[in-house]
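Researcher: Good morning. I'm working through a list of sequences from a screen, and I'd like to move beyond sequence-only analysis. For each chain I'm collecting a predicted structure so we can compare shapes side by side. This is the next one on the list. No need for commentary yet; just the structure.
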Amino acid sequence: MKKLFWFATGIAAGLAVAKQMRENPEARAAVEDAAKRARAIGEAFTTGYKERELEIKRAEGAAKKPKTATKKPAAPKAAKPATAKKPAVKKTAAKPTAN
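Model: Good morning. Structure tokens for this chain:
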């Protein structure tokens, strides 16, 4: 019953807000202003995140650069021929003797 109550309350609140938006231009302006500010904050966070990510990548790239001449990659090793495995031996526990 609680879920049904909160569902109905949400619908009623949504309808009340929609009615205010239609009838009251000040309410519409307030919502549009809040939405614009929220977008600006989101863009600021995104820009800051991307800048910091770029700084970290540059720092990692500088740390990974070798200070000596680059080495040639090692030649690939020849594959070993497949050998047959011996079957595993099953170990059994010693049974206690009854006295």
